[in-house]
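Usage

Read records sequentially. Each one opens with the input sequence:
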Amino acid sequence: METGTRPTDTEEASTAQLLGKLPQQVSTLIRDELRLAQLEMREKGKRGGLGAGMMGGAGLAAMYGVGALIATAILLLATAVDAWIAALIVTGVLFVVAGVLALLGKRQLAQAIPPAPEQAIDSSRQDIADIKEAAHR
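and closes with the structure output:
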């Protein structure tokens, strides 16, 4: 060891001391990974709910669009004047709104799928790989 440097706890600790700390460290690691998984699942649930709500809004807007289209056809048949043009514009706007809501809802649902805590799983796999690597040294 060089002069002027302090040894770390792991350099001074014996194998028995390090093995004694192992259960506590594994327990802490598992608790942290479970906490991460809970947070990730909560976030995915929120995104899924938001996406489903937007898809429902898109369906509702599309229903109003169909109603407006029907009203447009009635007005067109009843009179061939300016009233049907206004109804046609409203129909177009409602379908645009439905399209935007559907795209936003699809994006939200895509972020919520698959409903697994991917970050926590990846982190746990990395932890296991690190522990195996350290055990082989």
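Summary fields computed downstream for this record:
- Helices lie at 9-12, 15-78, 82-112, 118-135.
- The two ends are 21 Å apart (CA to CA).
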